[in-house]
């Protein structure tokens, strides 16, 4: 079999297993996904599934990616609301918080759980098969989506705020890492039911913490240019 036909076969098998995994997630939840259930639904054996996915965590990761399509499509619309890089970055966080706290198990699998492998490699493989997921996204946002580590994604985008005079270069890594830890902390709190937060409360609290953190490093003379407010009473 030629290399081209092998790639076509690989993509076809991926789709079979991911279609099956998606169906299991939709009907039983991602916590109830097993290789056997997926293989049975796809019409293959578990050993065949392992020929294409190293372990269950990888298959769950790829299946979970399908459930982020609405977030990826909505992200540019949120960022358009901002008038400068810091505002756009905050709106990007609002969009991410909205979708991640509505589906915490899905986003935890992608951004928190141990995958036993390099996430960037998994993402690159995913988008080789599902190239259409990126069609229509601005090139800058495509690069952010492809960068798995949230802190790095934040740093990639908010870098422009340095040239705009909002933030100093030395604070980029700090604010990117801090905001990631804030989101992960709230996500873990919600998933472990340590606090009885509603989805909107979790979103608002996380955005408030993120907003306060970034405002600490924004140049005082530029703060008045940031009109973003972290608490939203009516979310779309």
Describe the structure.
The chain is about 65% helix and about 0% strand. It starts with a helix and ends in a 19-residue tail after the last helix. The protein has helices at about 5-30, 35-40, 45-50, 55-65, 70-80, 85-100, 105-110, 120-130, 140-145, 150-160, 160-165, 170-190, 200-215. It has about 240 residues and is mainly α. The chain is globular and about 65 Å long. InterPro entries: Homeodomain-like_sf (IPR009057), HTH_TetR (IPR001647). This is TetR/AcrR family transcriptional regulator.
List the helices and strands and how they pair.
Elements: H1 3-28, H2 35-42, H3 46-50, H4 56-66, H5 69-79, H6 85-102, H7 104-111, H8 119-129, H9 139-146, H10 150-158, H11 160-163, H12 172-191, H13 199-217
DNA-binding region: 34-53
Keywords: DNA-binding
InterPro entries: Homeodomain-like_sf, HTH_TetR
Rg from alpha-carbon coordinates:
19 Å
> What helical percentage do the residues reach?
55-70%
Q: Give the N-terminus to C-terminus distance in angstroms.
A: 50 Å
**Main beta sheet:** none
Number of helices: 13
Number of strands: 0
Number of domains: 2
Percentage of residues in strands: under 5%
Name the structural class.
mainly alpha
Q: Identify the overall geometry.
A: globular
Order of helices and strands: HHHHHHHHHHHHH
Mean pLDDT, to the nearest integer, reads: 86
Residue stretches low in confidence (pLDDT < 50, at least 5 long) are: none
Protein name: TetR/AcrR family transcriptional regulator
Pfam families: TetR_N
Keywords: DNA-binding
DNA-binding region: 34-53
């Amino acid at each position: 079999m030629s290399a081209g036909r092998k790639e076509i076969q690989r993509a076809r098998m991926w789709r079979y297993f991911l279609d099956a995994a998606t169906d299991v997630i939709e009907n039983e939840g991602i916590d109830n996904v097993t290789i056997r259930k997926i293989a049975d639904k796809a019409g293959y054996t578990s050993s065949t599934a392992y020929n294409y996915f190293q372990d269950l965590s990888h298959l769950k990761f790829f299946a979970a990616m399908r459930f982020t399509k609405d977030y990826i499509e909505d992200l540019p619309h949120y960022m358009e609301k901002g008038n400068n890089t810091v505002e756009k970055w905050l709106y990007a966080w609002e969009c991410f918080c909205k979708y991640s706290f509505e589906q915490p198990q899905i986003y935890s699998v992608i951004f928190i759980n141990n995958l036993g492998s390099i996430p960037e490699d998994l993402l690159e493989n995913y988008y080789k098969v599902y190239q259409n997921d990126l069609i229509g996204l601005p090139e800058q946002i495509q690069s952010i989506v492809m960068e798995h580590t949230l802190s790095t994604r934040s740093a990639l985008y908010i870098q422009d705020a340095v040239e705009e005079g909002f933030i100093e270069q030395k604070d980029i890594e700090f604010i990117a890492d801090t905001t990631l830890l804030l989101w992960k902390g709230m996500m873990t709190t919600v998933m472990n039911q340590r606090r009885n937060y509603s989805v909107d409360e979790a979103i608002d609290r996380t955005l408030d913490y993120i907003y306060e953190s970034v405002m600490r490093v924004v140049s005082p003379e530029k703060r008045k240019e940031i009109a973003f407010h972290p608490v939203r009473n009516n979310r779309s």
